[in-house]
Amino acid sequence: MRKGVVSVVLPIYNVEKYLNRCIKSVINQSYKNLEIILVDDGSPDNCPTLCDEWAKKDNRIKVIHKKNAGLGYARNTGIENATGEYICFFDSDDYIALDTIEKAYSLAVQEKSDMVVFGFCNVKANGETGKAVIPHTEKTAFSGQEVQDIFLVDLIGPDVKNGKQTNLWMSAWACLYSLEMIQKASWRFVSEREIISEDIYSLLGLYKYVSRVSVLPEALYFYCENTGSLTHTYKQDRYNKIKNFYKVCYQLATENNYSDNVKDRLSYPYLSNTIAAMKMIVGAEQPKKERLKQLETVINDEMLQEVINKTSLTKEKMLRKLLLEAIKRRRKELCYWMLKAKG
Which candidate in 45, 185, 203, 315 could, as Cys together with 209 as Cys, close a disulfide (CB 3.0–4.6 Å)? Predict the structure, then answer.
């Protein structure tokens, strides 16, 4: 590991329209001691050429061309080629504030933290910046057992029993990581082709090895809703993948001896993913009868009903609470119109 160096991994696939914006936000960072790893994941557009051109302009850039294997494995390629003290993973169709790495690295060194977590802003397709999602935790640093018992619990999802919302976000791009910690743990990302919401599953495994995490209460990442980046097609096996995500996350939490609070909180991303899938069903270009049939299949799923029935909905946000109550009561028509209005 090269002390003082931060490795920035950018997995790249079919983002020709946005790549330059992302790379510019990285090379123009106020913190200059960077190793920038562009992982061309077999991109079919002009990205491979753009990567090579950027490498000629900036000697901090290293380009790796590889056969397409997906986002998770592209990030792993970055890990295997990184030599920095810390590492971060940014999506190449997004961008970061110009002082992101300086602030995150300074805090990591100051606090001797294995990870630094920060906030983000959503950016609409027209370039308009939405409301900032800024972490607000009771403490700015968590050590030892409280990393798992307090921080990880709130990172997975809000506490719907008392309405506590920390605005933490369990995503690979919202962090700076100690590369030494990653290497000692032999930790890698799973493939999104294997497990949906792979960031949550992967990070759930990593937190077993985190001794100290710091929170940077600023929105430094810009998550872009780019044209063509969102899917509106519902695939028949999507809900089964969401169920599998919940099962393997629960199993991993058990294997890692995480608390019951961690396991209970896993219901939040499971229900969120399920609602997102149901919205896709409602918005699909199919006859209403077929969409209602698919919706009914999800609503009547035994595991979904079991999770909803054991989840407190008291402090849920009103619209989500009403929708979950409708699902609980198996009111498919009401769910359909609520999702249609919301979507």
Answer: 185
8 Å CB contact between 270 and 245: yes
> DSSP H helical segments within the chain, as ranges?
19-27, 47-57, 71-81, 100-111, 146, 153-156, 179-185, 198-206, 238-255, 260-265, 267-283, 288-299, 302-310, 318-328, 332-342
Q: Which CATH number do you get for residue 20?
A: 3.90.550.10
Whether residue 231 lies inside any domain: the answer is no
* Domain C-terminal end among 224, 251, 283: 224
The candidate with the shortest Cα–Cα distance to 203, out of 160, 158, 147, is: 147
pLDDT value at position 227?
Answer: 64
Q: pLDDT, tens digit, for every residue of 280-310?
A: 999 998 999 999 999 999 999 999 999 999 9
Q: How many domains would you assign to the chain?
A: 2
Task: Give the end of a domain, one of 224, 249, 269.
Answer: 224
Q: What is the pTM of this model?
A: 0.93
